[in-house]
Amino acid sequence: MSIQRSIFIDASNPEELAVDVAARLIREGRVIVYPTDTTYALGANALDSAAISLIFELKGRPADKPMHVVVSDLEVAEKYVVLNESARILAQKFLPGPLTLILPKKGIVPDILVAGRQTLGIRIPDNKICLMLAQKAEVPITATSANLSGQENLYSINGMVEQFGPRLDQVDLIIDQGPLPQRPPSTLIDLTISPPVILREGPISGAELLKALG
């Protein structure tokens, strides 16, 4: 990984010009690495099938495993998914935060992103860099963790270099926030069925979510 393609950004006060560069790369169909409130993630334009294919190839991710997306807020999310009352309740209480809401997708979302399914996972992470990036990119950003498929989650750029090796040459920019706290991936809740189902328990417990939904 060339040092010229890695940039450090202070998470407490992100530099807008640096985030602008990353957002432009995403709009151009390139692949970047960026921090979230859990792990580092591989980011590309989630409406661009070719860019999505690059992410699958880079991770060695099976094509039948859907990817989630990051958006800047719930209003933007509504362009890509059908929001229901449960989603609004959970968003108001837990977002931004380490929670993925699985909702019915709209037609604009490419089939390759969701492995042919009719649902999409929406993330609004509690991370200033991440939210600024989503706002400036003006497209949903893939939110799959920046690790090889089946390998351990990565919380530092050094760990990424060790795990990916030469594969990182396929990444156009790495946003380095420094080592992230080692939190598990976001909690996943499927809101397309009733009652909702917790698909993966992460930093927010399933009990907390179900309590909020009454």
General shape: globular
Estimate the helix proportion, in percent. 25-40%
Number of domains: 1
Largest sheet: 6 strands, mixed
E-strand count:
11
Strands of the widest sheet, in order across it, are: 7-4-6-5-10-11
CATH level 1 name = Alpha Beta
Mean pLDDT: 96
Q: With helices defined by DSSP (H or I, 4 residues minimum), what is the helix count?
A: 7
Q: Let me know the CATH homologous superfamily.
A: DHBP synthase
Distance between the termini: 49 Å
Order of helices and strands: EHEEHEHHEEHEEHEEEH
CATH architecture: Alpha-Beta Complex
Helix and strand composition category: alpha/beta
Strand percentage: 15-25%
The CATH topology label is DHBP synthase
Uncertain parts: none
Using the CA coordinates, give the radius of gyration: 16 Å
Written account of the structure:
- The mean pLDDT is 96.
- The longest helix is centred in the N-terminal third of the chain and has 12 residues, at 16-27.
- The protein has helices at residues 16-27, 49-59, 74-77, 85-94, 128-137, 157-164, 206-212, and strands at 6-8, 32-35, 40-43, 69-70, 99-104, 119-123, 141-142, 144-145, 173-176, 187-190, 197-200.
- The radius of gyration is 16 Å and the shape is globular.
- It has a six-stranded mixed β-sheet.
- It is an alpha/beta fold.
- The protein has one domain (3-212): DHBP synthase (Alpha-Beta Complex), CATH 3.90.870.
- The chain is 29% helix and 19% strand.
- The protein contains seven helices and eleven strands.
